[in-house]
Prior knowledge:
The chain is 16% helix and 28% strand. It contains 6 helices and 26 strands. The chain has helices at 3-20, 168-179, 204-217, 244-249, 288-299, 328-340; strands spanning 25-26, 56-62, 70-76, 84-88, 96-99, 101-103, 106-107, 110-111, 114-120, 128-133, 140-145, 156-161, 185-188, 222-224, 265-269, 272-276, 307-311, 345-348, 354-357, 360-361, 375-376, 382-386, 407-411, 415-421, 426-435, 438-448.
Amino acid sequence: MGKVTMMLAIALVILHLVSRCRGGVTSSYRRKLEASVDMPLNSDVFRRPPGYNAPEQVHITQGDYVGRGVIVSWVTPVEPGSDLVLYGPASNKSKYQAHARLTTYKFGNYTSGYIHHCKLKNLDYNTLYYYRVGIGNSSREFSFTTPPEVGPDVPYTFGIIGDLGQTFDSNQTLGHYASNELAKALLFVGDLSYADHYPLHDNRRWDSWGRFVERVAAYQPWILTAGNHEIDTVPEIHETTPFKPYIHRYHAPFKASGSTSPLWYSIKRASAHIIVLSSYSAYAKYTPQYEWLQNEFTKVNRSETPWLIVLVHSPWYNSNNYHYMEGETMRVIFESWFVQNKVDLVFSGHVHAYERSERISNIAYNITNKECTPIPDPSAPVYITIGDGGNIEGLANNFTEPQPNYSAYREASFGHATLEIKNRTHAYYSWHRNSDGIKEVGDSAWIYNRYWRPDE
Ligand SMILES: *[C@@H]1O[C@H](CO)[C@@H](O)[C@H](O)[C@H]1NC(C)=O
Ligand SMILES: *[C@@H]1O[C@H](CO)[C@@H](O)[C@H](O)[C@H]1NC(C)=O
Ligand SMILES: *[C@@H]1O[C@H](CO)[C@@H](O)[C@H](O)[C@H]1NC(C)=O
Ligand SMILES: *[C@@H]1O[C@H](CO)[C@@H](O)[C@H](O)[C@H]1NC(C)=O
Ligand SMILES: *[C@@H]1O[C@H](CO)[C@@H](O)[C@H](O)[C@H]1NC(C)=O
Ligand SMILES: *[C@@H]1O[C@H](CO)[C@@H](O)[C@H](O)[C@H]1NC(C)=O
Ligand SMILES: *[C@@H]1O[C@H](CO)[C@@H](O)[C@H](O)[C@H]1NC(C)=O
Ligand SMILES: *[C@@H]1O[C@H](CO)[C@@H](O)[C@H](O)[C@H]1NC(C)=O
Ligand SMILES: *[C@@H]1O[C@H](CO)[C@@H](O)[C@H](O)[C@H]1NC(C)=O
Ligand SMILES: [Fe+2]
């Protein structure tokens, strides 16, 4: 054999091996592993707005089932102050007004500021609104754009962030997200402030987190999921009610979707039906969450909202050694419903790394038949773990080896993602890693709708 022919033969063998190996990718990108430290309390991002009793920690979320409502929330530090929200379109920014409800809470020897939640209703679709909170020289103005009317071919782009915290890395993630002009609403998959990292869950770190994220959260709705760092129980100081700070500070339109708890609910937005679940509330048969979800699936209409998306903190498919199989009990209970109802995407956090799965299911097992391997399933969702916002616990840089064949892509870096829904059949998904100061695309994929394009 001539030398050239031999090299060609070797090249062909290598090519053959590469094309046969259809397993997932473990990214070779290695981020410098440094300690993740919280930004000090006197950092620029935590600065209080000027003026006596000025509203701070301003944030919004969807306020109804279909996108014509917005909940505006803020905190005043010294006294209740005004409960008024003035809002309107550019032509008359104070055309309408609404009154907020006030709440406060104590946590050990911490007393919260005055927390206001105000529901703006019957807004026009696809409209830029300005809103103002506070009074006189301490008042502050923000704006948001309502989504288009719910419909099957309405393009819309969601951002996705999880496990954000308040470190220097968190600040990079938020900065990159803010510079990504595509995303119009954020799907947040749990673990917000990590205040529970501090002795007795120092709740001042809930306040600093609220001030930190305001530069994004005041302008576009954050659709929140509760994570384990929202549980916040400290029996030593008799704080035994789970989710107390979270539920006081962050409201959700749960009643609009027939839920009895702000920890699980759903919304429709543009062409998506989004279901938010709670990994840390009861979900076995006969529990409120179980019964609510069973009923919620019957309300999903893919002719109206083709895209069915679930947010849940603890991932069901995760090939990282951190938190391995913690989502297993919920998977066993709900996975067959996800397959029957052809859920398109499931976003989770919890594991501080990034991973995307193949479309797989593991629902055949019945105790005796040994069928307990995840198998390719065209009716199953893609599972995305994106707990890589950048919190104080650092990266989860220890994947199981070899990479299981259900895992399509995995990488231990911080970042955020966007889901660009184009129409009822196509959505473009991309994950943007924080590459030491800049953002770059680490992983991307076209997602074909399970109802309208099940063959792809
Ligand atoms: C704005 O709307 C308010 C309330 O309807 C009204 O009193 C006011 O005159 C309007 N201002 C302008 C400039 O149209
Ligand atoms: C609150 O409790 C912590 C821990 O016991 C203590 O260090 C701090 O001084 C207390 N603060 C007040 C205002 O009592
Ligand atoms: C803000 O208004 C208050 C009361 O109206 C006044 O006492 C204060 O001097 C004003 N502050 C500034 C910075 O204008
Ligand atoms: C956080 O990031 C912003 C830019 O997105 C920057 O202006 C600010 O100085 C940063 N703060 C800290 C404490 O790193
Ligand atoms: C589903 O939505 C379509 C389009 O809006 C509507 O025509 C149809 O009646 C709905 N189906 C049900 C069962 O509500
Ligand atoms: C479990 O699956 C096996 C094989 O599919 C079947 O023969 C058996 O009846 C099943 N057991 C139960 C309890 O459904
Ligand atoms: C992974 O490999 C197992 C065993 O070879 C196979 O049964 C299964 O279908 C594969 N799963 C995927 C998602 O390819
Ligand atoms: C990675 O996780 C495995 C399983 O928990 C453990 O045995 C191993 O020591 C870990 N490796 C490192 C470098 O932490
Ligand atoms: C849906 O969007 C995809 C991607 O932009 C495009 O290729 C396709 O033609 C669109 N489908 C329809 C029916 O417009
Ligand atoms: Fe978590």
